[in-house]
Amino acid sequence: MSSHDVAILGYLVLLIAAALLELTATRTRAPVPPLGDVLSRIMRTRTGRVGVLVAWAWLGLHFFAR
Amino acid sequence: MNRVARRPAAAPAKRRLAVLLGVRDPVVVILLLIAFFSAISGKPLDGLLIMLVAAALAWDSWARSRRAAAEPSEDEPAWPLTAHRHPQPAVQAPAVQAPAVQAPAGQAPGGSAARHNAAVLGGLAGVLGGILYAAVVGSFTRFSWPATIAVVGLGALVIFIGWQGPLRPRPVPGRLPLAGVAAWGALLFAGGLWELWQLLQQPSLTVTSYAHPTISALTDPVLSAQPGRALMLAGWLLIGWYLVRR
Question: What is the predicted ipTM?
């Protein structure tokens, strides 16, 4: 297995873990909040709200802007 | 007498402490770190814009703490109500929203249908606008000035809207289970570390590596063509819409 494959595998593991965590939150009674609730909680203050929105804007800047 | 003499010296110290507290806000610290790493990895514009927002948040935090010091209050709301679009705290949203389905006395019964139609039309206009934006901006060359202006403009607009508060009152979840929040935090942290590890394994911060691809390097083939850019932009817009409505 090459370094490239290991890197891809790492990203896939993270993606699957996120999906499993969301499924655990929405389909079971485990004490795990859905990601949406975590975001709502973070975004209840101005710094949290603006921080999350800046992270979103940064994605656009990073992939498309100079 | 002593108290009067002490006040002028104590006030600047309090102000300095307040500014320091504003900069020490975890969100401000994270934004400053993102700004720093963006700037050193060849994206000075990203770094500058994020630093400006971090400075504005630190200033806002300082200004609010100054107001709080001037008018001490035991039950200050988490959200600054003066800047809020809605006079009701978000936690009371369900109680406010529940009776909204009944037309108030004296109001035309078709009022709620008209509101529904307006909402549907607004939503349709938003979807069409989003598709148009993705198609037009996706047709611009990546990292060109037109693409930069379009993305920076929309990003700044959304942050400005977010600064004012939520678009509509929403119930804020109560205290979340710590273990679950820690699990999400650990996942985010692990993702950040994995991406950073790949970045540091590159020949340099600005030269990508096939053996150690970052997410940016992996998306390069998709974003090199117009349809890929338009699709990614549409996804970015959807996430932004989801966030701005929370």
Answer: 0.94
